[in-house]
């Protein structure tokens, strides 16, 4: 009989077929002391006795499967959920928490009306609920403004004027709207991305300066993207990076934390280059003006032509839903749209330095059902759109906003 359990090669489990085979072999050894007859177990037969015996054996098979899952939680490549969150803490990193989306609401009603914190508003489809974050007293013109957050954490958007439904009526409060687009929050870091970040974090003590700087910057709380470029030549390179300088492209994170990592991990003979600056004071009182790159946003305009499939799935808010999907996809990739990581779709979104390619937008557009996509036009100016790619410089970032996305129903 094969060895099962924890072996030098790992955990070897019994499948249900193995459990039944072992039980069958053991039962076959039972012999009647009088007649000498032996049991002839057959779990596939209609024998009630065999069916009764099979019930606890199936539970044993389930326990082996559970043991496999528990054992796997100690492997960063297989652990999931809370177990993975605990394992990566051994590498000094934390799973990035989700953040609610934010919007500024304009409230209208009877002058002097007090609208308490915690009121709920939504769009016409009532899909996403937004909750006000402070008490508001309408002024003498019956106007007021308040910040609202989504009830659930995640990357949600709302186009100007989309939030118009009051879910918790208050006497004297007549209308609500949003003049500007909502600011998307963030989804909780998914397991595959957390595993990837853990793998990158193990380069923190690396001998290569680029790897060490990258890994330590990636571990800074709030940092979503890092690219480290070094010009080791004695002349300014084609990207405009000065000789012997480090240009770290960083999205997110506190300036002081980013600057401290660059000071601690950069080689002594290198300088820093970028459009962001923070002066770090070391333990001896010496100051260092540390620079890095905060990518410049390039506004992207999108126009889409679609046709209804006539199957009833295309709702009235199709334009807002498609625009939301594009914005979320550009920030968080396929996971932001709930597309499984194993599906082979892009996982990172459109990162700094990456050109905008119109076909990349098929995924978010087609995530909204009920239509057939006909044409996508993109550009950096509202009146100059085409199917051509939009090149993005290494120190820039394509920026998508629902207000710059137009959907035409043919």
Protein architecture, described:
There is one protein chain. This protein has 410 residues and is of the alpha+beta class. 24% of the residues lie in helices and 26% in strands. The chain folds into four domains: 5-72, no CATH class; 102-177, no CATH class; 203-294, 2-Layer Sandwich (GMP Synthetase, Chain A, domain 3), CATH 3.30.300; 298-409, no CATH class. It has helices spanning 16-27, 48-72, 81-88, 191-201, 209-218, 255-265, 318-332, 362-366; strands at residues 5-7, 10-12, 102-109, 114-115, 120-123, 130-132, 136-137, 143-150, 163-166, 173-177, 223-231, 245-252, 271-272, 276-281, 287-292, 296-299, 301-308, 371-381, 384-386, 396-399, 405-409. The strands form seven sheets. The protein has a six-stranded antiparallel sheet with strand order 9-5-6-8-3-10, with no helix packed on it. A four-stranded mixed sheet has the order 19-18-17-21. It has a three-stranded mixed sheet with strand order 11-12-13, with helices on one face.
